[in-house]
Amino acid sequence: MRNLTELSLNNRPLVWYFIVIAFVGGIFSYFSLGRMEDPKFVIREMIVSAYWSGATADEMQEQVTDKLEKKLQDIPNLDNLRSETRPGSTMIYIELDDEPATDQIRPMWRDVRNFCTDIKDDLPEGVMGPFFNDNYDEVFGSVYALTGDGFSYEELRRYAEEIRRLMFGIDDVKKIELVGEQSEIVYVEIEQTKLAELGISPQVISDTLAAQNAMTPAGMVETSSDNVYLRVTGIFDDVEAIRNLPLNAEGRIIRLGDIATIERRFVDPPEPKMFFDGKPAIGIAVAMNDGGNILKLGEDLDRMKARIQSELPLGMELHQVSDQPKVVEKSIGEFVETLILAIVIVLAVSFASLGLRTGIVVAGCIPLVLAGTFCFMYALGIDLHKVSLGSLIIALGLLVDDAIIAVEMMSVQLERGLSRFDAACHAFNVTAKPMLTGTLITCAGFIPVAFAKGIASEFCRDMFWVVSIALILSWIVSVMVAPLFGYYIIKTEKKSDTELYNSRFYKIFRRVLETFLRNKILVLSGTIGTFAATIFVADLVQQEFFPPSIRPEILIELRLPEGSSMAATQTEAERFAKFLDSKRDHLKNYAYYVGQDTPRFVLTISPGDDVDNMAKFVVTANEDIRDELIEIIDTELDDNFPLVRANIQLIQTGPPADYPIMLRVSGTDIDKVQSLAEEVADRVAQDPNATNIHLDWNEKSKIVRIDLDQDKLRALGVTSQEVKSMLYTEITGAKASEFYTGDRTIDIDLRLAAADRNNLAALKSLPIYLGAAGYVPLEQIAKLSYDAEYGLIRRRNLKPTVTVQANILSGTANDAAIKAFDATEDLRKDLPLGYSIEPDGDLEESDKSTGDLLSMLPLVVFVIMTLLMFQLNDAKAMILTLLTAPLGLIGVVFALIILSKPLGFVAELGVIALSGMIIRNSVILIDQIQQHLRAGEEPFDAIIDSAVLRFRPIMLTAAAAILGMLPLMVSVFWGPMAVAIAGGLLVATVLTLLVLPVMYASVYFSDIEV
Fold first, then answer.
1. Other CB atoms within 10 A of residue 746 CB
2. pLDDT at position 234
């Protein structure tokens, strides 16, 4: 390898030029990088929906869901199919496995559309759809609520539409959706007594409305100079025109308004609603373009919001519900503070251990490496977010290693009397190659996060690139820039080797090492025993996939029994809102959604479907009292909301899960699956730490069964379909025509008056039109009875599937889920063919992600072995070096236990990366031993002298890495990884300096003379 230090010192003006360019480029890149809360990752999920009005959940499952799922099973790279079937509707969730690359996902969704088109003709007549949603991962980071005392929903909607148009003019705004809109309908409501008196069929009224308001061309007259269109009046231009519509009732002309109440009002039952601080609101959800700067977008939105508020009428206000720009600004600010603190710590280590001048050289390398890293991040499109910023802090503790080693060696050579030029060049000859090998080995430790499959790895993927870029740049800087700085700055006095390594400390270290070499069997046995004990106590380490974030938002789901109306849900939500109003000193604001989930305002939450029996609250707690507020809310829900199943969640820092404990029970028969799920729930309930244990579906909805007398119907010339259609028209309301006003198209619905259609007891008296025979009560042609049926059927991979869900009082989700799963071991052994009990949620994803990481270990080992062989050119030395990697687990396990940190996915990444750091130190030591042996030293002296010579640089680099992790230890996301790396590296470094020499002596010189 050409001496790059010599090249640098001989071309100093050129090197200074590139240093300046790197600094300028780094500053520009830093301010140009996109700012985000979380790294972008693709949610490999698409939703296919279909609707069949009038079908039961069971009919919907058999005739629609099953047919679609069977066809969708042919999709390449399908991971699983999940479906939720309700009366008249089905939602099928298609999840792909991790094989397709990110850029292949969208084309695969086109295949899904084609598959569904192929099966469309096989679906029953009247099925609407299938419809597709492949933008499931859209993040609406800024959500606003428009409220107005005394303003109607329609007035709020019109202003919200205008605000939407204004916000679309802001750079980086990708998409804006309105939430909580209420459609208007013109209701034509007729009393059943008047229908019976007049003998008019509802179909006659419907047909008259449709014919009167049909948009039909009236023709065009072409003159010699113009085209003149004919415009015929008659289309409804207001509600009064509908009231004045003439009807022919057995030869008499009457007005529709004479027999019906006609009103234009909001849809009843209502559509999903949004409320802010208890007031009805229209939500405005804003999504940012990929790669945009969310901080700049936030500033632009704030300015626009201020201007809009000044123009709104008195009483109307625009509120901020979710402000991701502020969260990102705070998050980045905290990470920058942590980065600065880490820099200060590393510099303190450098100055304290190397002295002022040598420390200045190392200090000068840090901003240069960071600047270069920002340049590459900008070029590769890596934004600033929690993963990239955390990776920079991790890299900081490592990127000074090469500079410390190079500068320390240069200082030693200067003390030995070499010139500045020769000392710098000698440092390169001795340290450059092992440093490069060590750097590449450290980078190799992060390979799993870069190339492992799975959403968790994709979430953390930028870690590999940021750390690798920083470390490789640090090596380049250490061999080309650090010697240049040292050439001008470092000044030392000449010392002999005796003075350098004959201090009291080095004497003690020599004696300890000699003692270890004299007792090789005892040392190696003790090391193996300690490692075995570590494996034994490893079960005491808590398990966790990803921790909850520290964001102030609290997500609260209120779910009523299946089949509950939206009105009942809203009543419970309003009760809970009044409770929140009484706790204003604990919270900033709250918003809630009735009949729908919250928009995806953070990538790591997963909104559910629109369902009548669910309300979702987003409560923003005041600083530092979030946990206290959660306890207050939990107590209130337990004490005063007995009919509501509540779930309190925090926003996750990684892929989301609904509950800490989730166990999936699947099989072929619904009743058997339900029974088995109940048994699983009983096992989970045996753990006193588990609470709110329930099945995700097991309730039946109330129904009225109407058994039509087919003989009577045929005798009267009436079909079942006609009766069903009449019942639907009278009770629910059927669209008869449309009313056009402004930019809105409003349906005209025909139905009975509220008193006649909302009373179950009056169902038997509903008038059924029989043509010439007039009207008869429903009970004369049908028998009515009460019954129950499943209002929700969930399936996974075509099998009915019930998920047992539970919250926990304390501890981590994975520990609780593992305990619950283990409690079902005897059930799982005796399951019938086709039935299964499997982990779901965090535990399933954690096991899958860990498996993905472990699948990459052979590649990591291969890369590291290859690098070691290039460096050491000795198979035994290579194996020795590899054997030092597991020593880090001793420190990892005990550090996590002592500091009560869980071993999660990010910490697992740290453990794998730690192996590269440990091997790097081992390479440096073994390379030094080989140099001494080649110089002719006796084996004993070569081992001792190498350990002494390498003690300071190895300990300094380890200290820099360990202390650099301290600021990260308080981080919820990075803390476990920082503890794992620091604890593992601390123990492994000591063992590398003391045990590795013993291992080397035992392998190469078993009869070494001590």
1. 19
2. 64
CA gyration radius for the chain? 36
Three-state SS annotation for 465-531: HHHHHHHHHHHHHHHHCHHHHHHHHCCCCCCCHHHHCCCHHHHHHHHHHHHHHHCHHHHHHHHHHHH
Whether the Cβ atoms of residue 784 and residue 762 lie closer than 8 Å to each other? no
Q: What is the pLDDT of residue 666?
A: 93
Q: What six digits make up the tokens of 854? A: 């472990």
* Residues 6+ positions from 243 with CB-CB distance below 8 Å: 255, 256, 257, 262
Please tell me the number of Cα atoms within 13 Å of 808 on its side-chain side. Answer: 19
d(C-alpha 976, C-alpha 973), whole Å: 7
Structure tokens at 962: 């360990």
Distance CA 370, CA 332 (A): 16
At residue 1007, the pLDDT reads 58
Q: Going by C-beta distance under 8 Å and a sequence separation of 6 or more, which residues neighbour residue 337?
A: none
| Adjacent-strand bridge partners of 644 | none
Q: In 3-state terms, what secondary structure has residue 174?
A: strand
Residue 350: exposure state from Cβ atoms within 10 A (0-12, 13-18, ≥19): buried
DSSP three-state, residue 885: helix
CA angle, corner 538, sides to 535 and 544, nearest 5?
145
Predicted confidence band of residue 796 (pLDDT cuts 50, 70, 90)? very high
What average pLDDT does the structure give for the chain? Answer: 85
Once rounded to an integer, what is the mean pLDDT over residues 269-282? 90
Average the pLDDT over each of 133-137, 143-147, 563-567 and give the range with the smallest value: 133-137
Is residue 646 within 8 A of residue 557, CB to CB? The reply is: yes
DSSP tag of 599: P
Query: In this predicted structure, which of 302-311, 661-670, 743-752, 766-775 has the lowest mean pLDDT?
Result: 766-775
Question: Residue 331 pLDDT more than 60?
Answer: yes
Least Cα distance to 999 among 886, 899, 870 occurs for: 886
How many Å apart are CA 315 and CA 891, to the nearest integer?
62
In contact, 1005 and 937? CB cutoff 8 Å: no
- Cis (ω within 30 of 0) for the bond into 269? yes
Query: How, if at all, do strands 744-752 and 184-190 pair?
Result: parallel
**Dist. CA 716–CA 258, nearest whole Å:** 30
Residue 158's SS3 state is: helix
Per-residue pLDDT tens for 425-476? 887 888 888 888 888 988 888 888 888 887 778 888 888 999 899 999 999 9
Q: How far apart are CA 537 and CA 544, in angstroms?
A: 17
DSSP for 415-471, written as a single string: HTT--HHHHHHHHHHHHHHHHHHHHHHHHHTTHHHHH--SHHHHHHTHHHHHHHHHH
752's tokens: 């009975």
Q: Helices 420-444 & 386-415, crossing angle to 10 degrees?
A: 150
> What is the mean pLDDT of the segment spanning 574-592?
92
Q: What is the C-alpha separation between 729 and 992, in angstroms, rounded?
A: 82
| Partners of residue 51 on adjacent β-strands | 89, 128
Tell me the HSE value of 820 on the side-chain side, using a 13 A CA sphere.
38
Distance CA(189)–CA(187), nearest Å, equals: 6
632 within 8 A of 817, measured Cβ to Cβ: no
Tell me the per-residue pLDDT of 554-579, one tens digit each, with 9 for 90 and over: 999 999 988 888 889 999 999 999 99
Quick one: angle between helices 626-640 and 566-581, nearest 10? 130
User: CB–CB of 111/48 below 8 Å?
Assistant: no
3-state DSSP of 89-111:
EEEEEEEECCCCCHHHHHHHHHH
pLDDT in tens, 760-791: 777 888 888 777 667 788 888 888 888 888 88
For residue 955, give the H/E element and its range: helix 939-965
DSSP state of 936: T
